[in-house]
Structure formats: C-alpha cells, structure tokens
From TrEMBL:
The keyword Signal applies. PANTHER family: CREG1 PROTEIN (PTHR13343), PROTEIN CREG1 (PTHR13343:SF21). It comes from Psilopogon haemacephalus. It comes from the Eukaryota. The lineage of its organism: Eukaryota, Metazoa, Chordata, Craniata, Vertebrata. Belongs to the CREG family. This is CREG1 protein.
C-alpha cells in the first residue's frame, strides 16, 4: 500500500468519525469539502432530445475529485461517461451544464436532522462545461473515480467509456441562512477542504 493511499484511508476514517465541516464564513472551503465528501451529483444539461430540445434535463452521475480522505481531493469533479447516455448526447451538442452536490447524501444531515432543503445541509451548485480529459489527466481521473466507485472498472468495455471533468466557471454555496454565496474558481482551487 502506498504512503498516499494509507494517508487517504486514515483520513477517511477520521472523516467518518465526525470531522467538523468548515464554518459558514469559509465558503470556498465549504465548496471543496462538500464536493470531496459526495460520491454523486445531479448534472443538468440543455436537452438535445426530440420533444425536450432546449429544456433543462437533470440526471444523476457518480463523481469524484480524488480518493477518500481530507487531503486527497483535487477539487476537480471527474466523471466516467459513455456516448450511449442521454445526458452525454446533450453535452455533445452543448457542453454547458450545472452540477449540484449536497451533504444530504452523507450521514451529516441525517445526524443533525436537517432536511435536504435546509441551508444547513450544505449544497453547492457548479456551472461550467464537461470536457474529456487528455491522456495525461486520464490516470488521475481513473484513480479518483475507481477508488470511490470500484464497480466502474467492470462496466461493459463495448460502451466506450471515457473520463471527463467538470470545467468549473461559477460556484454558488448554500450552507447557511441568508442566501447563496458566490465563490470564484480561483478561491475554490486555492483552499483545501
């Protein structure tokens, strides 16, 4: 086991033991924290499908910004996609999308009895575009995704799976009362979760 893998495993145990979330005044850290602790998100595209053309269309996708653990996330949402998927077909026409991730999928909100719509059950909305990763980034994406979603490795090869990332241009954080907070990509990538 590599030193980084061991560090990530220990860090994941610490998180499971109840590591505190960032305070509301640290919106960029909160955005990184929520993304890193979520395994899936709702990806919204503009539909290219007959009868829905130009309308919003949301779908659930598994994602990862790195192996589990507080020091193992890059902040980049990676996805494993196939052209056979309806939302990916939308993205081939218009790569713009939004991605929402929420702590509602973690034990945190249930533990505190927060409804998923309660602002204290933090959620993050990213806007940007989906792009295929280049060969040099494919190994990073593969490690990030397969460490959290090991089933992916056995998905049918004839589906022509590829690694992609969400290229973030805008970030909104809802983690407290009083409305959304805007975080720039520069602020987001400059902090650790």
């Amino acid at each position: 086991m590599s030193r980084l893998t061991l560090l990530c495993a220990v860090a994941a145990l610490l998180l499971a033991a109840g590591r505190a979330i960032p305070p509301p005044e640290e919106a960029a850290r909160m955005a990184r924290f929520v993304l890193h602790n979520c395994d899936w998100g709702a990806l919204a595209t503009l539909s290219a499908q007959e009868g829905l053309r130009g309308r919003p269309f949301a779908n659930i996708f598994s994602l990862s910004d790195g192996p589990p653990g507080p020091f193992c996330g890059s902040g980049v949402p990676y996805l494993y996609l196939t052209d056979m998927e309806i939302s990916v077909q939308d993205l081939e026409i218009n790569s713009n999308a939004s991605l929402t991730v929420s702590l509602a999928q973690t034990p945190y909100c249930k533990k505190h009895r927060y409804d998923p719509q309660n602002p204290l059950c933090a959620h993050i909305i990213f806007c940007g575009s989906i792009v295929k990763v280049n060969d040099s980034e494919a190994d990073i994406a593969k490690k990030a995704l397969f460490s959290r979603h090991p089933e992916m490795e056995s998905w049918p090869k004839d589906h022509n799976w590829f690694f992609a990332k969400f290229n973030i241009t805008n970030i909104w954080v809802l983690d407290y009362f009083g409305g959304l907070k805007i975080v720039t990509p520069e602020e987001y990538y400059s902090v650790k979760p």
